[in-house]
Amino acid sequence: MPGTRIIAIRHGETEWNLQGRFQGHKDSPLSPLGRAQAAALGRRLGAETFDLLYSSDLGRALDTAGAIARHSGHTVQADAQLRERHFGILEGLTESEIIAQHGDTLERLRRPEPDFRIPGGESLRDAYDRCVSAFTRLALTHAGGTVVAVCHGGVLAHLYQHATAAPMDTPRKFAVLNASINRFRFAGGRWRLDDWGDVAHLDDCVANQPDH
């Protein structure tokens, strides 16, 4: 059986990406480059065949998904379970501000400790389990189909680690690029990574901002 194909996409670059601010469940508008990236995604996916278009319910993802919808004709279905990790007290702050205000929290975040819950936010395990569960639900609900899902860097990293059987707390040796197309397959109860980090549609755009 071919299984369910999931085309998972990171949103376009945001203003807070440029400023190095932790976004999490807070939001920031797409930058001019981010809007151009979203438009390029729309043109690319408008030429592909897929069944449904999902998005995190955060604005940066919805705006990116909206650009795809304008070309593909799909309706965007918002799903809160596709949100980025909740970074609690760190959201909206730059790294230097976090060092000054919450240095101990940042140190524990960097180790990382899977069960350390950021004050006001989620632990790594919380976010990992939520994201993998959300994608598995989509794959089972739309078995045999092709689903596009616009989400976030951390969300994509969790699915990558799950599909490749890498421990959730393993230091990343892979990039999670803005407006990248990442292809997964779910069949027989198992995930498989088919293609990662496709940004051919971005031409000379830079898509390598931090994924928080």
| CATH fold call | Rossmann fold
Which segments are poorly predicted (pLDDT under 50) over 5 or more consecutive residues? Answer: none
Number of helices: 6
The CATH homologous superfamily is called Phosphoglycerate mutase-like
Q: What does the largest sheet look like?
A: 6 strands, mixed
Helix content: 25-40%
Shape: globular
Radius of gyration: 16 Å
Structural class: alpha/beta
Oligomerization status of the protein chains:
single chain
- Average pLDDT, all residues: 94
Distance between termini? 36 Å
Q: What is the string of SSEs from the N terminus onward?
A: EHHEHEHHEHEE
Q: So, CATH architecture? A: 3-Layer(aba) Sandwich
Secondary structure blueprint with pairings:
Elements: E1 4-10, H1 15-19, H2 32-46, E2 52-55, H3 59-72, E3 76-78, H4 95-110, H5 124-141, E4 146-151, H6 153-163, E5 181-187, E6 190-198
Parallel strand pairs: 1-4, 2-3, 2-4
Antiparallel strand pairs: 1-5, 5-6
